[in-house]
Fold this sequence. Notes:
Largest sheet: 6 strands, mixed
Distance between the termini: 53 Å
Structural class: alpha+beta
Helix content: 40-55%
CATH class of the largest domain: Mainly Alpha
CATH architecture of the largest domain: Up-down Bundle
Mean pLDDT: 81
Amino acid sequence: MSMNGNDLVLNKIPEPVRKEAEAIGLTDADCLFSVRSDLGLDRQAGAVWLIVGRKAAVMITPDSGKGGVNGPFELSKVEKVRSFQTVGSAFLQFMIDGLYVDVIRYSNARREMFGRARLQLERLLDGESVQVEALTRPSERLCNVCSLPLPDRGASCPRCSARRGLFRRSLSLMTPYKRYVLMLLGMMLAGVTLDLMPPLLTRTLVDKVLVPRTHIDWLPLILLGLVGAAAGRSTLNIFIGRTSSFIGTRITRELRERLQEKLLSVSVDYYDKHSTGSLMSRVLYDVDRFQGFVAQVAQGFLLNLMLVLAIGAALFYMNYRLALLVLLPIPFVVIGTTFFWKHIYPRYYRWWDSQSKMAQLLSGFLSGIRLVKSFGQEKREQRRFNQAARYLQHARRSVEMSVATFNPIMGFVVGLGGLIIWNFGGKQVYFGEVTIGTLMAFFGYTGMFYAPISALSMFSNWVSEFLTAGQRVFEVLDAPSEVLEDANPAQLPNIGGAIEFRNVTFGYDPYNPVLKNVSFKIEPGQFIGIVGKSGSGKTTIVNLVCRFYDVQQGEVLIDGVNVQKIAREDLHRQVGLVLQEPFLFRASIAENIAYGRPDASAIALQDAAKAANAHDFIARMTAGYDTRLGERGAGLSGGERQRVSIARALLCDPKILILDEATSSVDTESELEIQHALAILGKGRTTIAIAHRLSTLKNSDRIFVIDDGKIVESGTHEELMAYDGVYRKLVRIQTELTRLEIA
């Protein structure tokens, strides 16, 4: 989607609708911003403008007179703004007198721009000013330089980043291995010298021994020299191959380790933008291209370049006129390589994209295999996979058919050089200008000269693959971490557990806040409940306490210290988190419980399990604590997995405990056992519990009610029930639902 002046106009009426706007009394002074749509309300394609003023908003169709005007809508009468999605398009709607009214229609291609306009309209309704930078910032889905669609939201552009010193950065990876690289260069020079010897020895054999039939005693020596050159070259190839393999495997290992370290250090926001399958393919497959990079340096590009220069010098030394003829095919090779780079290289990106999509699809249905089978969607998943496989097939076939056409053509062009030498060299031999031994040596060198030229012409194939893979690897390594540790972090080895939110405003999209100027205090040891509708901001509070994200405005403090200044290790060691969907690794139960404290003793581990009401069911298992679990804890029920996760949190003895819907997905009996475990777990700790089942929060010291990113009520259960507000309404709804279930 384009984010240019054709779609957005600031502080004046767009020229295409100026006449219609002025006819209804709108002027430039009234206009804050205007956004262009591509659909009319009747779904007819065409330019349509939404003009947002200080007091009203209106839709105008150019050259339509009064019949093309929808509105104006006075903003003072608008209660809410929303985007209403339909198939292929959406409406921007205003709620007026309790009913939603269609204001303007737009296609999915304009969805991002109108999403931004909706957020600014909401700010106007709240009495706030328009954020111009929110409207004009570049799209996260398009490159703002070349407009190429990006692989992921906010990712770097494959086309543009490939030009930013990728080869230089790749070469820098060899810096720790300078000694081995110099050794490789020395062996390559020695190998090129050995490659030059056979044609010279052949020339001597023909001109000095076979043709004049003299110096027969030279024959064994010349043959011994040919054998020695071949044996020496083979020996060097062994050492070159082993050395390049040593360097290449070390670099790929270190790159994988750096990628894994980077993936652990980036914020949670990074995983919101990138799929698991895409990140896996980078670590597992793209890194292997760097092994090929070392091989190309050792035995590919540099070696071929050395051969071309050395053999070219030998050819000019032997016969400069024939040497000039050898160079005739070179311009055609350069032209062909340039054509390849411009027209065939982009197809490698489609190949990578198809591989990435297949990895994402495979990762998705393997992770959700129980869901697939429970809904009987095996055939549907098979069709989706087959479609992805066909996409991969077409993308790869496009690349390989292009290469299969390009390589033979280049081979044919290079082969013409040999025929030219036969023509002119044969005449020189016939007229006695050149000896037959010289011509044979020249042919030997010509073949050796054209072989690396052909290899260099095909080098663009490898470069295309490497640039695509290298760009993806460095994209991860260069990813900025949204959550950075302070240069001199405060060390808090033992915290009290006091938590304070001070005028906190935060949004995953910074221009669309989820929490709006939230402030509250929690004293050490208090049990705090948080309730509210889905999407109101409950889990966001948890994310900010754990510092998975940093606030845009305000402060989050623990024991009076801003969490951004607390050492990350101290913070995470003393904040325990129990999620709604507990994640268990494919490992033993003991290893899962001891994940936060791998050095914990067996007694401490059992004590934690007993406190979490998990010891009894673990003891009944054949292997007890050594029972190995399947993927995501397969082998345990939902309640058992939750109790294991509670034991894991308890073993770490956190000063702050956060329970995010910890009992919402289990049966009543399991919930009762988990609540008993949590009662033990919460003693002496600051506990924040998010729950939809409000009965679990009755004994809370305080309950915060969140609605639309704000704390609208707070107090004990009894105080909130006495106040006829949001909390009492939620309790009444749940009570009615419980009665219906019993009935």
